[in-house]
Each structure stands twice: as C-alpha cells, then as structure tokens.
C-alpha cells in the first residue's frame, strides 16, 4: 500500500480545516429566529431591564497583626525598646447587591457580605464605583442595607413572594467567583425551607438556579423581572454549587429592610412561648388528624403568650391566617413581627379550634434615646433592666439596638452591652449615667458576653 506524499496531502488537510472553521458560522447563520412566525423565547429583554439594578459589592477589612507573637507582650517591647507598631493586614470579600430604591440610593445585600467591613464599595452596572454607607444589618436573617450617592440608578421592582409556586421559572443574577453580571436560570425547587441551621430565622426559597460564592446578596427574579428573593446560601459539601441554592423571600426581606431603614436595626418582640414540631406520635397521643403544626411546650408567666391565652399542649395551626407547619416556622414568623404589633393565632385545643389574639411585646418600650442622656450616646436606645448576679437582683443599664456609624457606635457600644461604669463612677440607673456623663465620655466600663471591657474615648 502506498502512502500519499506530504505535499500532496496538504491541500486536503487545508480544505478540511477551512470546512471546520466555516461550519459553525454557517450553522449559526441558518438558525431560525422564529418558528411559525413567532420569535423564539429569550430572557434577554427582561434581563436588559433588570441588570442595571444589580451591583457588585466589595469590602475591605483591616486587621492589626504582629508578625512575631512575642512582640504582643508589652513588657518585652518595653524592655528591648521595640516600638511594637502593629502591622495591618487587609482582607477583601466580594458579593452582589440589589438597588431597591433608586431615589434614595438604597442597596440590599447579605449581612455576611459586609460583616465587619471597614470600607464598602459598590460597582454599578455602568462601571461606576462609589462608596457605600452601611445603614444597618440583621445577622439573624442575613440582610444588610446600604446607601450610595449616585444618580441615574435603576431599581429592581419587588414582587409578592407569597405568590411563588414550586416549578415557577426563576433567574439568579450576581458575581459568582468575581465574574460580574452573571445570569443563571432554573425553577423554584421548594418553598418554606426551615431548620437548615444557616440563619437564625429561615423561610428559604430553594432553587436549582446556580448560586455560587459571590452570588450572595444578588437577586432571584421571576420571568417578569421582579425580585422574588435575595440569594444567600448554597448547600454543598465542598462549597460549590450542586443544584441546591437558597434565597430569602422578598416578603420576609421587606419587613427587615423597613425596620432597618426606620431604626437602623431590627426590633424584634417577645412572645414568651416555646414550641416543638408535631410528630406522628404526638398527633396520635393528642388524638388529632393534623400532621403539621407547632405544639406549644411551655409558656412563660406574665408573657405576651400567656396574656393571649396560649397554653402548653396547644397545637398552633396558623398565624395571622397563614398556615404554620413547624416549630421553626412559627419561630420565624413571630420573629419577623414588628415589636408591639398584634397577632392572631389559630390553635387546636382538645379537638376544638380556637382563635387567640395577642400582642408581641416590645422589649425596648421603656428605653430612651441615647441623646436624651448625652449627645455622645446618640443613635442607641438605653434602658434599665433587672439583672440577676451572685449578689442577687439589681438594676443595670443596658444598651438596646443602635445605628452603625452613630456616635454611640463610634464610642464602642454594642447592642446588649451592660454599662457598669462611666468616667470612674458606678452606674445603676439612667439618672446617675446622665450625671456621670455631664462632661462627655472619657471611659465606659461594659459587660459584653460575660467579659468586662473598658471603652476609652478615641
């Protein structure tokens, strides 16, 4: 058998190469743009409207470090006359955000995207980069609210997420792995996911639209281009997407956003009841055909739950007309009710359905605004609480919700701090706190997470 010579084989190979190079373009040119006179479906027109409202969120966090552990010892530095100036290490994170109010420049993202950040910067759809101010955040629902000063912003309209159904088509937009303005599509896989241990309050939309690191804080929209959820988490052993992503429903987010815009934080009420899931064994023991709900296991004395008439053993079926399927679902629903608001419970007690009306108590109803005590405490709620210690019951001064970036925040105070001393004076009431701070804040002694801290004027 005789093989062809190399120079004779070249034209054939060249011809084959040309065919391969031109085939795709010919195939692309022959693709139909319409079938039976109707254009092929495309998400492009909807995305053109939505994408300008999606932003990238980048943060910078500075941490002071000593390269050598021994240099952290002040005696060592003083003995060897070492200046001991700590070095700073910068860490960066990247996420996504959604413009929800174009006139006011309000951007929503995840709490974990901006947590502890010293600087927050937003990159808009048109490439502009602007600094962002943190108005407030809620770690329990993983929602943060930012504000930017920029013109010509475009907001993403919010939909009623309660209208979502399993099987609805949805689109996720964000910056996975730093790749800005990436779009993935899928369907709603499940609704009302709770008990995952991802956040304190959970009522997730589950979707198979790819959500990867960097998508956090980005929008999940329906085919009308309306926001139905805020992408927040993935469930995967290795941290990558395997088709299970979770988003916070807009109706849940709306309540949190409104409170952050009004107060700088979320003011949750107290109800005073504990619940557990209705298991098949409990249902049989209670003699009820119900298979979903929350069984009240305990009610605190003199609580809002007791005032509403709730009793241990009651099976809660609905809250404000919306079905309750689990104890975690009830906890989430109560946790999203604004402090001081009325609630209506549908319960099953000894086979009889009852409607109970109550009011979620405001734990900060008796607190005062910090500026009423001293201008340096502006931005915080301050109140008196009864505390139990080894010395017995005593009155203490507690810090309530406070606005990030406010004078009280900059003074070093944080929510739930107990102020034990101010400017060298012991503090037991709002009255003597006001007296101790007549000349401003030089130092504050606070108890935070069972640790005593001294906050000095900066």
Describe the protein.
This protein has 458 residues and is α+β, with helices and mostly antiparallel strands. The protein folds into four domains: 49-148, Thrombin, subunit H, CATH 2.40.10.120; 161-263, Beta Barrel (Thrombin, subunit H), CATH 2.40.10.10; 273-359, Roll (Pdz3 Domain); 368-456, Pdz3 Domain. It is 19% helix and 37% strand. It has ten helices and 27 strands. The strands form five sheets. Strands 21, 22, 23, 24, 25, 26 and 27 form a seven-stranded antiparallel beta sheet that branches. Strands 3-4-5-8-7-6 form a six-stranded antiparallel beta barrel. Strand 9 (169-174) and strand 10 (182-193) form a beta hairpin. The longest helix is centred in the N-terminal third of the chain and has 25 residues, at 6-30. It is flat. Mean pLDDT is 82; it is low at 1-29.
Task: Please give a quick description of this structure.
The protein has helices spanning 6-30, 44-50, 74-79, 111-114, 250-263, 280-286, 304-308, 327-335, 407-410, 430-436; strands spanning 34-35, 38-39, 54-65, 87-101, 106-109, 119-123, 129-138, 143-148, 169-174, 182-193, 204-207, 219-221, 227-234, 245-249, 273-277, 294-299, 315-319, 322-323, 342-349, 352-359, 368-369, 380-389, 392-402, 418-422, 425-426, 443-448, 451-456. With 458 residues, the protein is an alpha+beta fold. The chain has 4 domains: 49-148, Thrombin, subunit H, CATH 2.40.10; 161-263, Trypsin-like serine proteases (Thrombin, subunit H); 273-359, Pdz3 Domain, CATH 2.30.42; 368-456, PDZ domain (Pdz3 Domain, Roll).
């Amino acid at each position: 058998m005789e093989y062809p010579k190399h120079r004779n084989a070249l034209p054939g190979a060249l011809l084959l190469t040309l065919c391969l190079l031109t085939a795709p373009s010919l195939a692309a040119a022959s693709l139909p743009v319409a079938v039976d006179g109707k254009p092929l479906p495309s998400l492009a027109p909807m995305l053109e409207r939505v994408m300008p409202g999606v932003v990238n969120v980048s943060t910078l966090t500075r941490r002071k470090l000593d390269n050598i552990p021994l240099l952290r010892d002040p005696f060592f530095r003083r003995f060897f006359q070492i200046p001991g100036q700590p070095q700073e290490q910068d860490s960066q994170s990247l996420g996504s955000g959604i413009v929800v109010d174009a006139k006011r420049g309000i951007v929503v993202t995840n709490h974990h995207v901006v947590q502890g950040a010293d600087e927050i910067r937003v990159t808009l759809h048109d490439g502009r980069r602007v600094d962002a101010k943190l108005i407030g955040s809620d770690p329990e629902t993983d929602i943060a609210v930012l504000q930017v000063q920029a013109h010509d912003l475009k907001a993403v309209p919010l939909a009623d997420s309660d209208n979502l159904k399993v099987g609805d088509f949805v689109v996720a937009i964000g910056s996975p792995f730093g790749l800005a303005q990436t779009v993935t599509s899928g369907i709603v896989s499940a609704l009302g996911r709770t008990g995952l241990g991802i956040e304190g309050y959970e009522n997730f939309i589950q979707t198979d639209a790819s959500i990867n690191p960097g998508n956090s804080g980005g929008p999940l929209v329906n085919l009308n281009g309306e926001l139905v959820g805020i992408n927040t988490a993935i469930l995967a052993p290795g941290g990558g997407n395997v088709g299970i992503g979770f988003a916070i429903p807009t109706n849940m987010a709306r309540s949190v956003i409104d409170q952050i815009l009004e107060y700088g934080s979320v003011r949750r009420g107290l109800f005073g009841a504990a619940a557990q899931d209705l298991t098949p064994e409990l249902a049989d023991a209670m003699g009820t055909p119900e298979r979903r709900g929350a069984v009240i296991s305990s009610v605190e004395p003199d609580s809002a739950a007791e005032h509403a008439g709730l009793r241990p053993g009651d099976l809660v079926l609905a809250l404000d007309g919306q079905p309750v399927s689990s104890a975690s679902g009830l906890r989430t629903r109560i946790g999203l009710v604004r402090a001081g608001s009325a609630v209506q419970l549908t319960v099953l007690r000894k086979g009889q359905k009852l409607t109970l009306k109550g009011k979620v108590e405001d734990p900060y109803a008796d607190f005062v605004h910090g500026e009423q005590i001293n201008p340096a405490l502006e931005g915080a709620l301050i109140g008196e609480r009864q505390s139990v210690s080894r010395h017995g019951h005593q009155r203490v001064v507690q810090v309530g919700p406070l606005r990030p970036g406010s004078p009280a925040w900059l003074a070093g105070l944080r929510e739930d701090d107990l102020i034990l001393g101010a400017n060298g004076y012991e503090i037991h009431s709002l009255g003597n706190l006001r007296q101790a701070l007549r000349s401003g804040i030089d130092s504050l002694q606070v108890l935070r997470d069972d640790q005593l801290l001294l906050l000095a004027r900066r």
